Amino acid sequence: MKDVISLILGGGRGTRLYPLTQLRSKPAVPIGGKYRLIDIPISNCINSGFNRIYVLTQFLSVSLHRHIANSYKFDPFGQGFVEVLAAQQTNEGQNWYQGTADAVRQQIRYVVEDQAKEVMILSGDQLYRMDFRELHNFHQETKADVTIAVLPVSQEQVSGFGIVQVDETSKVHAFIEKPKTLEEIEPYAVSPDWLSKSGIQATNRPYLASMGIYLFNRKALLDLLNSRPLATDFGKEIFPRSIKNYNVKAFLFDGYWEDLGTVKAYHEANLALATQNPPFDFHSPNGVIYTRMRFLPASRFHGATLSNTLVSDGCVIEEGSNVNNCVIGVRSRIGKNVTLKECVIIGADRFETDKERADNLTKGIPNLNVGDNSVIHCAILDKDCRVGKNVRLVNTRKIQHDEGNNFVIRDGIICIPRGSIIPDGTVI
After folding, report:
1. The domain 300-422: what is its CATH number?
2. pLDDT digits (tens, 9 = 90+) for 287-305
3. Where in the chain is the domain with CATH 2.160.10.10?
4. Rounded distance, CA 216 to CA 145, Å?
5. What is the pLDDT of residues 44-61, one digit of tens each?
6. How far apart are CA 229 and CA 215, in angstroms?
7. CATH fold label, 4-261
8. Could you tell me which residues come within 8 angstroms of residue 231 by beta carbon, excluding any fewer than 6 positions away?
9. Under 8 Å between Cβ of 288 and 43
10. Range(s) for CATH 3.90.550.10 in the chain?
11. Which of 74, 389, 405, 409 has its CA 20 to 30 Å from the CA of residue 130?
12. DSSP line for 258-276
């Protein structure tokens, strides 16, 4: 689709995903054992024929840059690209991105120079599969200036979203960002009959939430940003003010979609991937999710018991270990008689040699990943962690939030930051 360019927003601090974002940007956070969050929107674009993609970055972006450079290389005759646009000081401004709209405004010259007819704006921290050609067709058929992809949600969910008010032609008449009271949201409810006519069964989901997926006509985007030079956010400022003067439409979507902006959401989404019938299936032949090619060997299991578990390439799980409802990332090594339950093990950047493991023993340092006889429940182990033998990481007291030496608890989930060392016999 040569007339469309895609801008993927990946510049936020990702504070709610800490400590996973301690040393990397949010779109660079691993998902599903071998992927990164940024792979989701990029893959959706490529599968839809939208292969002209810019990724806007800002905080801790080195690993994201490296992943994109190593993963997405197009045939020179195909005119496709995935390029990183990092925040930078210019003659026009010296500030960091102040919001979604400001990020696009600071990089707007690439839209102007490209002469694309339409601009699609996406988030870099969501898990979903969408054919953007359907969104594009709807946008053109309705002669929209702006199209917002929306998802039916319940009354209990509305406080976390921007909610749109539409008529029977899908035209947006009002937009409210994260409403808090029933009085605010009541006028935004849509008829179940209207949703049914649209092919969506949305019982008890009468509100339409913005998915953070927008398609703009080029002129409309430029006019909106130029006419509101102080506006920093699409949801809070651009959309509420654009509705009267532009044809803003809502594109209905009813597939799986999850915002992975918090530790709890991230943990739950990963574990769901390992179930027998996952709501999002990386194994689906439709809409392949792409990532970096690593050329790793197959994984080995030596008398271990695994159930509802997703295991990536290059892993070793030793005898007597019991792994239940977990995601095991690339190059993970799980020792003997280990018990893992509801865990996300992100894995390692490299294999340790026999000599390195012998040196670790001499120095009193645990080997990479998880040592013998350890018990870990409801936890996330970031990349290159070293958990010793006879370690117990079980939040028996149901603590919701806490921090200590080499661990963080968020939403009751024990998180071991990247590269941490947990000595033998540690109990958390």
Report:
1. 2.160.10.10
2. 999 999 999 999 999 999 9
3. 300-422
4. 6
5. 999 999 999 999 988 888
6. 20
7. Spore Coat Polysaccharide Biosynthesis Protein SpsA; Chain A (3.90.550)
8. 101, 102, 225, 237, 238, 241
9. yes
10. 4-261
11. 74
12. EE--SHHHHHHHHHHHTSS
